[in-house]
């Protein structure tokens, strides 16, 4: 049992604490939380920090440096919101993200991408 505290709602805390690491939903990415300089909100900007090159996020054309702005139409303003959605997701379902990506001129361009929710056990089976 993975009993690490995961934040978010008591439901998502319970899910994270009772599911083994292999059973937890995954998207194949790691997020770095940054402060929003425009609003002053702390840790409210979700930037893709690392990707599993064979994971679902990479397959959906999400890249390192992308800003995940919405999860199924809801703003991602905190790590707790992200974890609540992730650990409340059914493995095998799809999630739609609103993503912003900087172009060569430094402007942010938005697009939507659907990502398949997998599990760590699915990753191990593919090896």
Main structural class:
alpha+beta
Uncertain runs are 1-16
The main sheet comes to:
6 strands, antiparallel
Which overall shape is indicated by the principal axes computed on the Cα atoms?
globular
Tally the helices: 4
How do the SSEs run, as a string of H and E?
HEEEHEEHEEEH
Report the β-strand fraction as a percent range: 25-35%
What Rg is obtained from the alpha carbons, in whole angstroms? 15 Å
Distance between the termini: 23 Å
DSSP strand count: 8
Mean pLDDT over the residues: 82
Helix content: 10-25%
Features:
127 residues; alpha+beta; six-stranded antiparallel sheet; two-stranded antiparallel ribbon; 23% helix
What are the SSEs and their pairings?
Blueprint: H1 10-18, E1 25-26, E2 29-34, E3 45-51, H2 56-59, E4 67-71, E5 74-75, H3 79-87, E6 94-102, E7 108-116, E8 118-119, H4 120-126
Antiparallel strand pairs: 1-8, 2-3, 3-4, 4-5, 4-6, 6-7
């Amino acid at each position: 049992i993975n009993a690490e505290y995961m934040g978010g709602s008591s439901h998502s805390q319970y899910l994270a604490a009772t599911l083994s690491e292999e059973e937890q939903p995954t998207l194949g990415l790691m997020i770095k939380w940054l402060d929003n300089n425009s609003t002053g909100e702390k840790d409210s900007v979700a930037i893709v920090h690392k990707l599993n090159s064979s994971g679902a996020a990479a397959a959906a054309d999400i890249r390192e440096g992308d800003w995940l702005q919405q999860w199924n139409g809801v703003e991602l303003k905190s790590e707790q919101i992200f974890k609540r959605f992730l650990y409340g997701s059914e493995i095998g379902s799809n999630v739609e993200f609103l993503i912003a990506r900087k172009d060569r001129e430094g402007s942010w361009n938005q697009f939507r991408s659907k990502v398949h929710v997998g599990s760590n056990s699915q990753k191990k089976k593919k090896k």
